[in-house]
Specification:
This protein has 492 residues and is of the alpha/beta class. It folds into 2 domains: 399 residues, Amidase signature (AS) domain (Amidase signature (AS) enzymes, Alpha-Beta Complex); 67 residues, no CATH class. The strands form 2 sheets. It has an 11-stranded mixed β-sheet with strand order 1-3-2-6-8-7-12-13-11-9-10, with helices on both faces. The protein is globular and about 60 Å long.
Length: 492
């Protein structure tokens, strides 16, 4: 495995956060002729060269191809925009490894559908982004490419599984990223890195040729592809390109319902999060949204059901995927023995998942079928509560970005995890959700911004994005002195 102890501390970025233009501003500068696509792409490639040795967020940098594309950008709404793509999306000419040394690399013949849409709109892929091994952890680390650091604090995780994209977007190495989300994998890194992340409904964006393929499984309806960017308006722009049905034009949110869940199982490790939640509520009330308290249902039972069902469907896939090129099946006992001797073939987060999964996994197919029925009934009930005129406000997570290794210990354990209940709810109920950084409510000790999440029913994405824009205007704009901090490991 790579030696992470030698990873240098992240240097602070050269500009204040507020001075970093979002994708919309970058596109405007090219449309008006103030800048060329070649200048823009070249600048972002330079930032990657400068910062990625400290971040380790890109698994490969496509400099030659990107500069060639920038010399004659494809016309479209994203013409000349430099982006990153999660390593698990097919990119023509590249294999998919999912960060694993055991899994044989997956050869691809064409771009994933979502990548093809972005390219057709003129976006230029400058980098592929790092992931946790098998994209099944809330931290980004793997034995093939190593660990990705948080751009704001080197000793903290950037989150996962779309962590490479989150770090690249937050550090302005790219203008936007394409991620995927099965239990928070877009929103966790966006929240930890202080940017905006959007998980659409599962069927809203074509997932063809992305890894893993869950076709025919119930968990496929938990998985979505979506954008990570530095502003809500960027998310609307990118989602308009990616979606099978683009969102409507912006509209006023006054008179629309703001759902505030009652009796929701939550826990907070950082006081900045409930303070940000209160500020977000007040901002949306001031924008004219009408508060409505609602009990969603038995979220604790849903959460436990989700964990057991996920293990039911995915454990066999993980075991099969870990069969190496020589046909040798993965042995958890052999891996454990190797770890006792200081070795091991797989990432710590994946190992923890493989230990916990068999303990919680359903034993009978009949139990799994009952779980599907329960969660499908819950989907109908919560979508009815939200309607087409309601959005729900929750914290994205109950914690700020923790130190490396801690997220795995906190998230990969049995039982109802009240730190994670908000972010996972949106996957097993298949609800669109967006996380917005509350920079005006940043944590005094760490300087990190809490993430606030808005949730809607499928079909109400326009309202969701409108409410997110109002939320961002109230709590999201950073102050002029907000710069990523250069912290050494071990510093508070």
């Amino acid at each position: 495995m790579p030696d992470r102890s030698a990873t240098p501390a992240v240097k602070s970025l050269s500009e204040p956060f507020r001075a970093l233009p979002d994708a919309t501003s970058i596109l405007e500068s090219m449309i008006t002729g103030r800048r060329s696509a070649l200048d823009v792409v070249g600048e972002h490639l330079h930032r990657i060269k400068q910062l990625d040795p400290h971040l380790n967020a890109a698994t490969s940098v496509l400099e030659e191809q990107a500069l060639a594309a920038a010399a004659a950008p494809h016309p479209g709404p994203l013409a000349g925009l430099p982006i990153s793509v999660k390593e698990t999306f097919a990119l023509s000419g590249h294999t998919i490894t999912a960060g694993s040394l055991r899994m044989p690399p997956v050869a691809v013949q064409r771009d994933a559908a979502a990548v093809a849409r972005l390219k057709a709109a003129g976006a230029i892929v400058v980098a592929r982004a790092n992931v946790p091994e098998f994209v099944m952890a809330g931290e980004t680390d793997n034995p093939r490419y190593g660990r990705t650091n948080n751009p704001w604090a080197a000793e903290r995780t950037c989150g996962g599984s779309s962590g490479g994209d989150g770090a690249l977007v937050a550090s302005a190495c790219v203008a936007a990223g394409l991620g995927s989300d099965i239990l928070g994998s877009i929103r966790i890194p966006a929240s930890f890195c202080g940017v905006v992340g959007f998980k659409p409904a599962s069927a809203a964006v074509n997932k063809r040729d992305s890894w893993p393929s869950l076709d025919g499984l119930f968990t496929d309806s938990w998985l979505a592809a979506g954008p990570i960017a530095r502003s809500v308006r960027d998310i609307r722009l990118l989602y308009g390109v990616l979606a099978e049905s683009p969102p409507p034009a912006p509209a006023p949110i006054a008179g629309q319902r703001l759902i505030l869940p009652a009796d929701f199982p939550l826990a907070y490790r950082d006081a900045a999060i409930p303070a940000a939640l209160n500020a977000g509520q007040q901002a949306l009330f001031a924008a004219g949204m009408q508060p409505e308290r609602a009990v969603l249902g038995d979220v604790r039972r849903w959460y436990k059901t989700m964990v057991r069902y996920l293990a039911w469907e995915l454990m066999p896939l993980l075991q099969a995927g870990l069969t190496n090129a020589g046909g040798e099946a993965f042995s958890l006992w052999r891996e454990g023995l190797s770890r006792l001797r200081g070795g091991g073939d797989i990432y710590e987060g994946l190992y923890r998942l493989l230990l916990v999964g068999p303990m919680v996994r359903y034993r009978r197919a009949s139990s799994a079928h009952q779980a599907v029925a329960l969660l499908e009934t819950a989907r109908i009930s919560v979508r009815k509560c939200l309607g087409q005129d309601g959005v729900m406000l929750l914290p994205t997570l109950g914690l700020l970005a923790p130190r490396h290794g801690e997220m795995n210990r906190l998230s990969l354990r049995p039982g109802v995890n009240r730190l994670m209940t908000p972010v996972t709810l949106c996957n097993y109920l298949d609800l669109p959700a967006i996380t917005v950084p509350a920079w005006r409510c940043r944590d005094a000790q760490s300087g990190l911004a809490p993430g606030l999440m808005l949730v809607s029913a499928p079909g109400a994405e326009g309202l969701l994005l409108d409410a997110a824009l109002a939320l961002e205007a109230a709590v999201g704009a950073p102050q002029a002195h907000d710069e990523p901090r250069a912290e050494s490991p071990g510093r508070n």
